[in-house]
Amino acid sequence: MALTINSNLMAVNAARNLGNSYNRLSSSVRKLSSGLRVGTAADDAAGLAIRELMRAEVASLNQGVRNANDAISMIQTADGALGVIDEKLIRMKELAEQAATGTYNSDQRLMIESEYQAMASEITRIASATDFNGVYLLNGNLSSDTHSGSGLTSTGKMKVHFGTANDSAEDYYYITIGNSTASALGVGNQAATSMDAYTVSTQERAQKALVGLTKAIISKDKIRASLGAMQNRLENTISNLQIQAENMQSAESRISDVDVATEMTEFVRNQVLTQAAVAMLSQANSLPRMALSLMQ
Q1: Rounded Cα–Cα distance for residues 17 and 273 (Å)
Q2: d(C-alpha 257, C-alpha 133), whole Å
Q3: Cα 50 to Cα 37, 45, 46, 60, 260, distances in angstroms
Q4: CA–CA distance from 215 to each of 66, 119, 186, 224 (Å)?
Q5: Taking the CA of residue 94 as centre, how many other CA atoms within 13 Å lie in the half-sphere pointing to its CB?
Q6: Measured distance CA(37)–CA(43) in Å, rounded
Q7: Are 116 and 92 in contact, with CB atoms under 8 Å apart?
Q8: DSSP letter, residue 172
Q9: CA angle at 41 for the pair 37 and 47, rounded to the nearest 5°
Q10: CA within 13 Å, CB half, 31
Q11: Is 25 in contact with 265 (CB distance < 8 Å)?
């Protein structure tokens, strides 16, 4: 190679190698500081696409867990109110039993009737007032077998969505809660007059009320049993969703996250190469000065 002044090819070569080593060093610093192997599409375009889909799945699954937990809270709210209604029905049956015996006169039986109807009115008040986030639970709004979510406010039975798609077999449940007002249970003077538990104002009607109240308690228990089964199902769903999210996050980590040990090795290698390139570039830049010694 000729000794020249205008063209220092060794310096050009050293500068190019320095640029390459510095770029790799910069990439290692970015990966180590962010913890991500795939930080940009240039790192791994296919890996980036897969990672983003997985991240979306994980986020959706975690929100699905929250949705299912909200549904459990709603069920517990309804069940708590039904527990109070249960107490009222038990008291009404106690009153019916009291009114059914012949040792009470008409005035005393009317006093019993007054409390009996007050209990029925309280059942209706509880059923009409029990709500979760503005959704009334026991007044019959959720007792329909059909559902429509096309409007701003959904109607019919409640659709609880927890999956990441829209497959009815995997992604959502319907929750139906029966009407628990006094008229729906067939107790008190808000029910039809033909219902057995309409009144306890006479001995005969009080005796019939015992049968009607048993039916009302059974109807209420069926609602509670259905809610309990759905709560257990949702709890199992939550466990499954959490496992899915955990496994999906693990898979996403293998694609996206940097292996610190491997990348640190690469960092040190690039650091040494960069330092060596800087040193050689300095030496290459000083070589043309050797031509001056020939001119003396």
Answers
A1: 9
A2: 40
A3: 13, 9, 6, 15, 21
A4: 37, 17, 9, 14
A5: 8
A6: 7
A7: yes
A8: E
A9: 60
A10: 24
A11: no
Angstrom distances, CA of residue 211 to CA of 94, 102, 125, 145, 192: 12, 18, 23, 28, 15
Q: How far apart are CA 166 and CA 254, in angstroms?
A: 28
d(CA 126, CA 139): 9
Contact 41, 246 (CB under 8 A): no
Predicted structure pTM score:
0.81
Q: What share of the chain is helix, strand, coil (3-state, %, to 5)?
A: 65, 5, 25
Sign for the CA dihedral angle at 93, 95, 125, 78 comes to negative
289 half-sphere exposure, CB direction, 13 A CA radius:
6
Structure tokens, 250: 């693990």
| Alpha-carbon radius of gyration of the chain | 39
Count of residues in the chain: 296
Q: Identify the CA nearest to 10 among candidates 294, 289, 295.
A: 289
For residue 3, the one-letter residue type is L
- Residue 46: in which H helix or E strand, if any? helix 45-100
At 5 the pLDDT is 66
Could you read off the pLDDT tens digit of each residue along the chain, which spans 296 residues? 566 666 677 888 888 888 888 888 888 888 888 888 888 888 788 888 988 899 999 999 999 999 999 999 999 999 999 999 999 999 999 999 999 999 999 899 999 999 999 999 999 999 999 999 999 999 999 999 899 999 998 899 999 999 988 887 789 999 999 999 999 999 999 999 999 999 999 999 999 999 999 999 999 999 999 999 999 999 999 999 999 999 999 998 888 888 888 888 888 888 898 888 888 888 877 777 776 676 66
* Residue 50, Ramachandran bin (φ over 0: left; ψ between -120 and 50: alpha; else beta): alpha
